[in-house]
Design brief:
CATH superfamily of the largest domain: Dihydrodipicolinate Reductase, domain 2
Strand content: 15-25%
Shape: globular
Number of strands: 15
Oligomer: single chain
CATH class of the largest domain: Alpha Beta
Largest sheet: 9 strands, mixed
CATH architecture of the largest domain: 2-Layer Sandwich
Number of domains: 2
Radius of gyration: 21 Å
Strand order of the largest sheet: 14-13-12-11-7-10-9-8-15
Helix content: 25-40%
Order of helices and strands: EHEHEHEHEHEHEHHEEEEEEEHHE
Distance between the termini: 61 Å
CATH topology of the largest domain: Dihydrodipicolinate Reductase, domain 2
């Protein structure tokens, strides 16, 4: 057992997600090095709650931290991640990597020149049912996985209308970059991150700007429809170089039932993971005995996926090595799909990603 002291970890962005991370860091026994936020009231509340120092500028935190978790609005991800990397501080960067592909690429360039690393914050990969699916895939039980149906659909779930979530300038997008990105990441994770070559997609904005938007509850305060200039649903089809495909449905609001199912289709077996229910069912067939179909419920212990994600990050920090999971390269791959979806929707046609010289969407005949 290592006798080294636990890493000193700070948090940048002390809102809800920042506090969720702080709670779990405390449970891990980590030395909470401090927090950064531009709002003095938020800083004071965080300092009182966690008995730690807080700062208005990140450079003060970098002087005392081995690693940081960045949980700011999307537009500021690049600013803080690059600053941390220039100080050789490791970064767990909440999804998305950035609010734009150009900003994401700036983070990658900074990481290449730094002794620090970046781990992307896709916690759903650490849910126990997902771990079981990946284990079965590695054992060959699914054969070759060819397609994933990825759903992250809320019937009514626009977060804080009028907040940064619904501002294009700050968030970089709406339902796609907020929750659809989780669905894309998990689907590509099930496919072992093949090269994505073509995307056809449509984004919509049908509910967020309506005065008569009716809902039961909301993440954040409803400040009304003013300033809502992002998408609230998306449909997309993603084609990969190895022939595998992804169909995506994501929505903050739509007139259909909530759906958080991921259907993994392999040549020998399939699975349905319900992210909201934390349930897993396998679908198999066999000629043994007589031809038959088998549907098997797989029961796992519930786990805190964010805490498990943090554990992987902390282990990497202690080793001083880039993590093997949730890598920066995978985060950039997801960001490129997000960018391609928005460009495809704007162009009204499919576009290809495998031509590095492509400047504008190419029409597919």
């Amino acid at each position: 057992m290592s006798s080294s002291p636990p890493p000193r970890v700070g948090i940048i962005g002390l809102g809800n997600i920042g506090r969720f991370h702080a709670d779990r860091l405390v449970d891990h026994g980590v030395d909470l090095a401090g927090g950064v936020d531009i709002d003095p009231d938020v800083r004071n509340r965080f300092a009182d709650a966690y008995a730690t120092d807080t700062y208005e500028t990140a450079s003060d935190l970098f002087a005392v931290a081995d690693a940081v978790i960045v949980a700011t609005p999307n537009r500021f991800h690049e600013e803080y991640a690059v600053d941390a990397l220039e100080h050789d501080v490791h970064v767990l960067l909440e999804k998305p990597l950035a609010h734009s592909i150009e900003s994401a690429e700036g983070i990658v360039a900074a990481a290449e020149a730094s002794d620090g690393f970046v781990m992307t914050g896709f916690k759903n990969r650490f849910a126990n049912p997902v771990e079981v699916i990946k284990s079965f895939q590695e054992q060959g039980r699914f054969g070759t996985t060819r397609h994933v149906e990825a759903n992250y659909i809320r019937r009514r779930g626009i977060p804080g209308r009028g907040s940064w979530f619904t501002s294009q300038a700050t968030s970089g997008g709406g339902s796609l970059i907020d929750i659809g990105i989780h669905a894309i990441d998990l689907a590509l994770h099930f496919l072992d991150f093949p090269e994505v070559v073509e995307v056809s997609a449509t984004t919509r904005s049908a509910f967020g700007a309506r005065e008569d938007y009716a809902y039961i509850d909301m993440w954040g305060e409803d400040l009304g429809p003013g300033g809502f200039d992002v998408d609230d649903s998306v449909s997309a089809f993603i084609r990969c170089a190895d022939g595998s495909t992804v169909s995506l449905e994501a929505a903050w609001a739509t007139n259909r039932p909530t759906n958080h199912e991921f259907l993994v289709r392999g040549t020998d077996a399939g699975a349905c993971f319900d992210r909201q229910e934390n349930s897993l069912k396998l679908y198999e067939s066999s000629k043994e005995g007589v031809d038959h179909l088998a549907d098997t419920d797989v029961t796992t212990r519930s786990n805190d996926a964010m805490a498990a994600e943090q554990r992987a990050f902390l282990d990497a920090v202690e080793r001083g090595e880039s993590p093997e999971r949730n890598t920066l390269e995978e985060g950039l791959a997801v960001q490129r799909v997000i960018d391609a979806i928005y460009r495809s929707s704007e162009a009204g046609r499919a576009i290809r990603l495998d031509d590095a010289t492509q400047e504008t969407p190419v029409e597919i005949d």
